[in-house]
Amino acid sequence: MTVQHAPQSTAAARRGAWEVIKDYMMTTDHKKIGLLYIFVSIIAFGIAGVLAVALRLQLALPDQTFLVGQTYNQVLTLHAAIMIFFFLIPIGLFGFGNFFLPLQLGVRDVALPRVNTFAVWLFIFSLILVITGLWNGGAPGVGWTFYYPLSVDGNQTGTSVFMVAVILNGIGSLLGSANFAATIINLRTPGMSLWKMPIFCWAIFSTSLLQLISLGGLTAAALVTFLELKLGLSMFNPGIGGTPILFQQFFWFYSHPAVYVMLLPYLGIGAEIASTMARKPLFGYRVMVYSLLGIVLVSLLVWAHHMFAVGLPESWQIAFMVATLVVAVPTGVKIFNLIGTLWGGRIIMKTPTYWLVGFIFNFLIGGITGVSLGMIPFDYQVTMSYYVVAHFHNVMMFGTAFLAMGGIYYWWPKMTGRFLNERLGMWHFWLFMVGSWMTFLPQYLLGLLGMPRRYYTYPEGNFAWTELNFISTLGALTLLAGGIVWVWNMYQSLQKPITASNNPWGGFTLEWTAASPPAAYNFAHEFPTSFPTERPLYDWEKSGEKLTPVDPRTIHLPVDSIWPFLTALALFFMGYGLSFGWFTNYTPAGGLQPFFNAGASHVFASIVLYLSIPFFLWALFKWAGTREYAVPVEHHHLTKYDNGFMGMAWFIISEVGLFGVLIAGYVYLRISGHAEPPALRPNIWLAALNTLILVSSSFVIHKAEQDHHHGRYTWFRLGLFITLILGALFMIFQVYEFALFGHESDWKQNLWQSCFFIIVGLHGLHILIGGTGIALPYYQALTGKMDKYNHGSLTAASLYWHLVDVVWLFIVAIFYAW
Amino acid sequence: MLNTNHSRRRGGPRRGLPPQLARAGLLGVGAALLTGCGSQQLLSIGDLSSAYNREMFWMSVWAIAFSIVIFIGVSYALFYTVRKFREDRNDAEPEQFHGNNRLETILVVVPVLIVMLLSVLTVRTMARLNPTPQNAVKVDVLGKQFWWNFGYPAAPAAAGGNVTNGNELVIPTRSPVALTITSGDVIHAFWAPNLGGQRDATPGTHKTWQIDTDRAGAYQGNCNVLCGASHANMRFKVIALDPEQYNTFLQAAQAYRAPEPAPGSAEARGYTLFMQGNPATGALACAACHRVQGTPAAGAAGPDLSFFGTRRTLGAGMWEGERAQEMLHGWIKHSPALKPGSLMPAYDGQEYRLNGKVQKAGLLTDAEIDDIAAYLRSLRLPEEANYWRDVPVTSQNASAQGGNP
Question: Which part of the chain is the Heme-copper oxidase subunit III family profile domain (chain A) (predicted)?
Fold first, then answer.
């Protein structure tokens, strides 16, 4: 094995840095994309970790002056935002998910490899975008929760870039989630039913589902905040009847489920480790799957528990309290079943096992304190205090992040072909374990002793505050030491030759049949088609079934392409322009000013914004004009739907979520009497005409799809063209209506009008996106890229257009007819 | 540069608390502890002098009991399993079983029962704690960046308006106090753990919430929702007085008019500056932002200063006692330098940056500032209404007051 792989690694080492970077820019290989996610997440973990140590140094003793006031708030916000959005969510779901989901399913790539490249770069660029804020006024200092109205307070910096980065990262994240869901439904190896998938695949599936359903809440919160900063449009401004609490409803509708996005992939990893290391099947595989799905369901119904101290109606509080306590049940099942899996095994006590056992023990504490926070009268006391800080770090930092570490130690040989040093690994583990306890257990006490979170300083003379804070800071330094050991461990391992066998731990799932590290085509063999349980390798060994070798030269993979990267780069420039520039020169404090009164950086960013639009379209059309495979290949998928349609079908859930959240907010404001329409409001007749236009366009594109299916290509092209014309007509009428309505009254003074522009305007943006989407297959048809077997992006574009149409019907009902 | 180092003065040996860890273990019985920790103030949700905390405690006892059982049970199961079945102690070939349905059912049903019991307990406790009693003393709470105003809607002042105090809330003992909480800008939260739970101060809404205590004393409160640069410096004191004393305070406060300074005194010069500022040097009038009961000063952008001379704290609880006295001059001169994000203008004539924007300060001489300080110190309630008089002070500056760090 060693001899066989050695030439490969030296060849890789000889490549220049630029070659490697270019490779990662253009790759469609899920493994490289997964490594990119993991690599960037680890860097983000390092940055955010150092920021955390800085915070702890400021709080080590009373009345320190290291990080004061707004500076502290900025460090605090970056620490949390980076840890959550750029470490804990991506490394599990997208890092390990990308690398191992196709391997465990026994396939060669995800459903939409180029969308995957686009998503990873969007993720990286949104991290870079946040960092560009540092030389454009400053980092956000509003907390990662960016509560309204602090987020639009004139004294704040960096909020717009934070909003834009959250939305861009969200788009990447949704594309990735839809891609996973489509992969799981469409691309498992023959014979593997859903109920025989490894538990990690189920974890990724349920997490993706949760992302798709709930992320709309965060996008809605960020979008409305952004629009208030840039246009004065608001749904939350109490000055015009909005409710600031509505922001929190939007925000937590995602951000509580996000906690489970940061848990479920890791529970999957934990279960894989337990089964492999104990050399046993999972204890209650089906029950564990049901628990995952149960957590998805219940976690969508608990968000208001972050808002008990707001003073919502008691009936609301009680309903959410019950759901909050109930979610402990499936979570408890996961823990019991992990222990059950270890029971009776012959447990290999290597570093992954230590991380697993550490996780179970720590998560037990975090779970119990979580239940205590569900008990409302107790929550009234300690919410927003250090008790809560201790609780969620207990769940995340020395809970799920332990399994992120476990995943790295467990899969490192598969990912790199090398082993991590066990001795260093134990140092890493114990430093993290002891460091976490020292850092966070005192914080529980601090909360009970009345210390609020997000305080940059505290006075001397509060009982035990000084001592407990000092211990906590020592703990943070211990964690820093552990982190250094970890990085050293990874570094020294990568310096060594590749020695790992295919299956060093004796695992039972398909990824262990690939080489370590896997070749680009993943498997040079095909699998038997019988899957009696979720542990095929064990079953096949018993039944004597063998892998069938395949000549790698017959395997076709998607070709590398620079266009997804460039499209993401264009969105980065667009994000930069939207964050630091704008089409006008508006600030919440100063109102609308002449454009060139703005600073040079604002003008520069606005120019970038204008330039980014043609750049984006150019890159996108080039992407659409480039075929995925160099040679015609037969795509086989398990359902009758092609991968593009399947990916879009899952993605659309997120659009429904986004509009659902915003419309629910509007309906609430309307019913509660806060949003009253002004006397002059947009005419129903124009909307009726637009409805006619849009509905007919849906029929036209459906007909076009049929024509394509039956090989009537001229009619097909005509159909797409007519759809585009109808979409353009719709836009013209809507722009006319917007201009008129915006002229008639001031949206900054009327909540209904503000809601109208936000939601109807967002729909207008979707018409533009959908229209661009239809232009892509039209372009592909014109350039001869489409035939009976190549649908290009037709099915996806048409499905999206139908969605935009259905949303419009709702909008007509609630804004024009009501 | 910001200088928020407001207690470097107290160098020397830290007041030791060697057995603090042992004590920390006994948090549940805060009341007993309070007497035992000398110069330190104990903030604790376990302060059982408050009916709220007592009610919460009896609810929590069950949860704590279950927690201990579950914690010990599960961690024992975990470590026993690992110990028994680790490779170096167990070389038997593992049995390949796929689960145990009866055990699974038990492990679902038992947590569901526990959760149901805890839900019932929670609802029962809420039913007792959440409704506002009819006889509660009413207080209006206003939070703004970064200070508090506490008004008494049932206590109109003879000089007009309601009795209002900035950053120090006086309440009676043995009576529920209904706070009607709102905010003038961003979201804040009122939290004094010894007296009960917290409630957010949200702009555009008024939420009513109760606190109470049986024991007279001064209690620490803090803003509990991130509200900007000086979130950590938005503190307040709650002074609980026995009912007779509380009534004395309230009656005197209702009758109170700011004392008229003797002509020609420092206070009189301070009064003029307070009311008019110094337009020649761009120094804004204090009265534009602050209210002083019984004078024309009726500003609402800053905390109420009617009883400033009686108050122990300065800068929304940043300094107390003697330290507050020392800091007053510097505070008036340049408050944003001492408290990040403070919106009070500076009076040293310099340009300064406030939240990224350049501001030009008006100019008052040191003597003029001292005059204003003298006027402020003269704003005292009559001695019988001095709510700090008999209060056992258990705070950071209790010892400092005696000059004995």
Answer: 551-818
Spatial contact of A650 and A184, defined as CB atoms under 8 Å apart: no
On whether the CB atoms of residues B126 and A317 are closer than 8 A, the answer is: yes
Number of domains in chain A: 2
Of the three residues A457, A492, A507, the one that is the final residue of a domain is A507
Task: Name the residue among B5, B23, B209 with its Cβ closest to that of A63.
Answer: B5
Is the model's pLDDT at B9 over the cut of 50?
no
pLDDT tens digits for range A596-641: 988 899 999 999 999 999 999 999 999 999 988 888 777 778 998 9
CATH of the domain at A303: 1.20.210.10
What is the number of CB-based contacts under 8 A between chain A and chain B?
Answer: 326
d(CA A808, CA A694): 8
CB of B22 less than 8 A from some CB of A: no
Instruction: Find chain B residues with C-beta within 8 A of A242's C-beta.
Output: 204
Q: Report the C-alpha gap between A565 and A558 in whole angstroms.
A: 15
The amino acid present at B231, given as its one-letter code, is: H
Domain, as residue range, for A773: 682-818
Q: Does domain B134-405 have CATH number 1.10.10.10?
A: no
Alpha carbon B104 to chain centroid distance? 48
Contact B44 A449 (CB under 8 A): yes
Q: In chain B, which among 324-383 make CB contacts under 8 A with chain A?
A: 340-341, 355-356
Alpha carbon distance A108, B354 (integer Å):
58
Low-confidence ranges of chain A (pLDDT < 70): 1-14
- Domain boundary pick from A481, A507, A533: A507
Does residue B39 belong to the interface with chain A, where contact is any CB pair within 8 Å? yes
Chain B interface mutation, best of A246, A381, A444, A469, highest count of B Cβ atoms under 10 Å: A381
CATH class of the domain at B51-129:
mainly alpha
Could you tell me if the ipTM is greater than 0.85?
A: yes
Q: What is the CA radius of gyration of chain B?
A: 27
Nearest-CA residue of chain B relative to A445?
B24
Is the residue at A530 inside a domain?
A: no
Domain boundaries defined on chain B:
51-129, 134-405
* CATH at A728: 1.20.120.80
Q: Which residues pair with A287 in a beta bridge?
A: none
**Cross-chain CB nearest to A463 (options B41, B129, B229):** B41
Q: Does any domain span residue A486?
A: yes
Mean pLDDT of chain A: 94
Instruction: Inspect the interface and report whether the beta carbons of A65 and B5 lie closer than 8 Å.
Output: yes
